């Protein structure tokens, strides 16, 4: 992504088994963000997000809420290099 930004993130709380990954994929696609999201073995969700700074900020706010059944207690995002993803995927659990 030429003029974009990328973030790597970890989301904690009740974020597994509550449709969090699929909801994140849907919101990212709606915003035109590429990357991926997956569950981690420790109960957190991990993500890599690529898009404009403005849309990434919007998705970051959404990550704090998530779907209705989620109870998010933490969102940690750090700037990383863009990897050039062309879509947004739900990846398999990292168990």
Automatic annotation (TrEMBL):
* Catalytic activity reported: an acyl phosphate + H2O = a carboxylate + phosphate + H(+)
Keyword terms: Hydrolase
Q: Report the Pfam families cross-referenced here.
A: Acylphosphatase (PF00708)
Question: According to the UniProt entry, what is the EC number of this protein?
Answer: 3.6.1.7
User: Active-site positions, per UniProt?
Assistant: 21, 39
Q: Output the superkingdom of the source species.
A: Bacteria
The EC class name is hydrolase
Domain Acylphosphatase-like residue range list: 6-92
- Cross-referenced InterPro entries: Acylphosphatase, Acylphosphatase-like_dom, Acylphosphatase-like_dom_sf, Acylphosphatase_CS
Hey, which family's this protein in? Belongs to the acylphosphatase family.
Its recorded name reads acylphosphatase
């Amino acid at each position: 992504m030429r003029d974009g930004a990328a973030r790597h993130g970890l989301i904690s709380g009740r974020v597994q088994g509550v449709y969090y990954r699929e909801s994140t994929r849907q919101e990212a696609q709606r915003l035109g963000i590429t990357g991926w999201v997956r569950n981690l073995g420790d109960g957190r969700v991990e993500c890599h997000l690529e898009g404009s700074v403005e849309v990434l900020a919007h998705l970051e706010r959404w990550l704090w809420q998530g779907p209705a059944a989620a109870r998010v207690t933490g969102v940690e995002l750090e700037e990383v290099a863009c990897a050039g993803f062309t879509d947004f995927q739900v990846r398999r659990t990292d168990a």
